[in-house]
Amino acid sequence: MFLTRAATLSALMIVAAFSQAPKPNHDLGFEDTPMLPGLPYHVHDDRRPHPRVVTPGAEPGGAPSDAIVLFDGKDLSAWTSHHSDITRGGTSGASEWKLGDGYMEVVPHTGDIATKEKFGDCQLHVEWSEPTDVVGTSQSRGNSGVILQGRYEVQVLDPWDNPTYADGQAGALYGQWPPLVNPARKPGEWQVYDIVFEAPKFEGEKLVKPAYITVFMNGVLLHNRKESLGPMVYRQVAHYSPQPAEDVLVLQNHNSKVRFRNIWIRRLQGYDQPEK
Ligand code: MG
């Protein structure tokens, strides 16, 4: 009986000792796991910084909380008129494009429009629709463009039964890369671009990283981090020249009454920097 009591007491003491020892808390991660290659963190490291919280848009395609809203359908105050030879150069005065009920529309012969703000690496959401009055063929049917940094054009064109050269059809990186597929909607329906743009990087005159462009159209992948050959040109091979790290976003006026709505952008600061 005595031995049994002693044994029971010992067992209770052991249990008590274990219960008082600091227990590793693995709820939030580990420090006894292998190191991740090239990183100062273990697998599941509890010290690894957590991404900040972003509130997503209320509906699919809605602007998340850290987006800069460039056009919400109500005013054109984020834009200026952009009279230039499509790329580089001067902006002047207010946009002359038409403001409709929840959309803006190209007014032919009034020039491109550009954002007042300049951007580098970014995520961009743009919705556009083609005129229901279908006129012209090929490049003259509903031509416009989303031109990142005023240089890198994602083509806007009527994608519905509109034969043209492949590297100039809707969703093409103009003059360089046709889209992988053509997820077209009809004229008058809203088409959606979601774009991730990695700006080119220069050290002095030297290009050290080209631009990379990812594009979804209507939720379908068109370009997966495609390397750009350089700023858009017509009937030539693109090439890079030194440029600012940030520059304006341009919407092209090709004299077709294309409409735009719901335009927002997120800066992707340090996008190509390794995690520390
Ligand atoms: Mg165009």
Description:
This protein is mainly beta. The longest helix has 19 residues, at 2-20. The chain is globular. The N and C termini lie far apart (62 Å). It contains 1 helix and 15 strands, in the order H-E-E-E-E-E-E-E-E-E-E-E-E-E-E-E. It folds into 2 domains: 1-49, no CATH class; 68-267, Exo-inulinase, domain 1 (Jelly Rolls). The chain has one helix spanning 2-20, and strands at 68-71, 79-82, 98-99, 104-105, 112-119, 122-129, 144-148, 152-156, 191-198, 201-203, 206-209, 212-217, 220-227, 247-251, 259-267. Strands 1, 3, 4, 6, 9, 12, 13 and 15 form an 8-stranded antiparallel β-sheet that branches. Magnesium ion binds next to strand 7 and strand 8.
What labels would you give this structure?
single chain, 276 residues, mainly beta, Jelly Rolls, 2 domains, 5-stranded antiparallel β-sheet, 15 strands, 29% strand, binds magnesium ion
Topology readout:
Layout: H1 2-20, E1 68-71, E2 79-82, E3 98-99, E4 104-105, E5 112-119, E6 122-129, E7 144-148, E8 152-156, E9 191-198, E10 201-203, E11 206-209, E12 212-217, E13 220-227, E14 247-251, E15 259-267
Antiparallel strand pairs: 1-15, 2-5, 3-4, 4-15, 5-14, 6-9, 6-15, 7-8, 7-14, 9-12, 10-11, 12-13
What is the class of the largest domain in the CATH system? Answer: Mainly Beta
Given the helix and strand composition, which structural class is it? mainly beta
Whole-number count of domains:
2
Instruction: Tell me the fraction of residues in β-strands, as a range.
Output: 25-35%
Please, how many helices?
1
Instruction: Give me the Rg, rounded.
Output: 27 Å
Biggest sheet, open or closed, and with what strands and sense?
Answer: 8 strands, antiparallel
> Bound compounds, please?
magnesium ion
Helical content (DSSP H or I, runs of 4+): under 10%
N→C terminal distance: 62 Å
